[in-house]
Design brief:
204 residues, 3-stranded antiparallel sheet
Length: 204
């Protein structure tokens, strides 16, 4: 811990105090906070902040509020298994509907990410332009950059909202789920060659 540690840190172990500070910061913020931001405000190193985040996540694991992490950002969310109670409180507004074609496209992006449109279409065998646009509008997937190849196609990845919809708290949990699926089934077709024409059929 640095010399300018906030007053109060001496009343508990440094790690537990940082975890408390992080919990307060994430609770007070209206958007996810990055590890770098948390470390800066808590006046600790990034490594200490990561340890504190791990501690806080374990402390909240069985609570009604969980620490959600996506990439390098953190937020407090209600426990996924309690979603039904939250819906009753909020009037149970109908959730956005994922059609079978959208679910298949979302599964393809999850499996291949970061994935280009051509790769998703090669896996599904149909044109996915509309599905990709719709999933972006629903904030289930997002652009993560451009592929370093001819044409520089956009690469897509799943979002934190998508993870929450599955009751997952991190990309590591998603990877474990996908790896389990790969062990139980044959792997899908490989990525298309650069410049390969997309399928002509529009089914979404």
């Amino acid at each position: 811990m640095s010399d300018d540690t906030p007053v109060g840190a001496t009343h508990a172990s440094p790690l537990h105090f940082v975890a408390r500070v992080m919990e307060a910061l994430v609770f007070a913020s209206d958007k996810p906070l990055s590890l770098a931001t948390l470390a800066e405000i808590a006046r600790c190193s990034p490594d200490e902040a990561k340890e504190a985040a791990d501690l806080l996540e374990s402390q909240l694991a069985e609570r009604g509020i969980n620490l959600f992490r996506h990439l390098d950002s953190f937020a407090l969310v209600t426990a996924p298994d309690l979603a039904g109670y939250i819906e009753r409180l909020q009037g149970a507004e109908p959730a956005e509907r994922l059609t079978p074609s959208l679910m298949e496209t979302l599964a393809a992006v999850s499996y291949l990410q970061p994935a280009t449109r051509a790769e998703v279409e090669n896996l599904r065998g149909v044109n996915c332009a509309k599905a990709i646009y719709t999933l972006q509008a629903m904030e289930m997937i997002e652009e993560a950059g451009l592929r370093d190849e001819p044409g520089q196609p956009a690469e897509y990845v799943t979002t934190g909202k998508f993870l929450l919809s599955l009751g997952l708290r991190s990309n590591d949990e998603l990877a474990g789920l996908l790896n389990a699926g790969r062990d139980d089934a044959s792997a899908p077709a490989g990525r298309p060659a650069a410049g390969e024409a997309p399928p002509a059929t529009e089914s979404d």
